[in-house]
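Appendix C reproduces, verbatim, an entry submitted by the partner laboratory led by Prof. M.T., so that reviewers can inspect both the input and the predicted structure.
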Amino acid sequence: MCDIYPQETLSFNSLPDDCPVKLLDYGLMTEMIQGKVTISRRKSRDMKKDVLVKKLELRHLKECLYELDRLGRLDPPNSIIDLHKKKYLVGSKKKMVKFLDTTFVPLVYLEEAFEKQKRGHIRYEIGDRVKYKRKDKIYMYGIISHIIGNGSNKEYTVDHVKQNSYLDEDGKYKFYPNFIEMAYSYNKVPHNKWVSGWDLEFIGKENEASIKLREKLEKDKEESLRKRQEVWPKLESRLLEGYKSVMYDVPNMVNNRARIIETERQLILRALEWPCSGITDDELFEKGVMRLVKEQLIPMCNKAWFREGVNVLDKKVWENVNDEENLLHKICKTGMYSCGFNIHSVQAISTMIKRYNVLD
């Protein structure tokens, strides 16, 4: 005998004998009630989904869907959604509503996201050490200095700290935070950013010892800067004299003598608006070379002299700058295009310091 309603048979068999549902005609539930129940449940689910989506903030809704996508890629057979190269489908609240209307996502995940939203993020305090991830996936570290907002949507000013680096076994640079030194901008105000509490991760807290140590280091740095500024004019004049004395020994200068002379002649012509017939070619060459020195070489020497992290006031630093273990030599080698100076400018400073006892 063929059972045309197997699901209903299972349901009836699981009911107790005195259940009033068993009085219904066999097949009635399947033919007349099941479809209506399905429609009613779907309608109820859609209403609940719409309420949750409306209440959920964009960040939590997006985080929920991104996490489901990530988990799906870790376990493809049990994947719920696939957003690989399709995150544009959930780029806004309007798009998310459309996506959830056409893609089945168990409501339990939206409910969990809403519960997280209601609980709010960790309550941070001024002085907390935190980190957050930039849009380019790089972590920034800092200390909270101000708080605005209330409830679960507070924002925090994170004053950035410096990051140090080391070379790992694979030859790659790894960065780590140095909470003792703030990352200052040019006007002595720390680089900072307003960050939502949802994007922050707690690392630790400031204490009296770390604050005092930072204050001491900043005072030492200010004193070092004052002394460097005091020595620089004397060092700069010696550098200019040194470059001038060897300009005829530099092949690049001598080989471009004609071009340097003509360039200088045109500059004077534009400045004075009459020919510079009273100036000799040797004078024009010297003037042109020294202009290049002041525009290109002296600024590099200046960057080397005011380089942070190097005690340039210590004569030992300048004793053997060609040694690969010398800190300035290492900086030139590893940060050739970012430090702003090269080994030649370091060698020039070293020569002047030793020749004229500039640091005595």
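The chain has eleven helices and six strands. Additional entries are available on request from the coordinating office.
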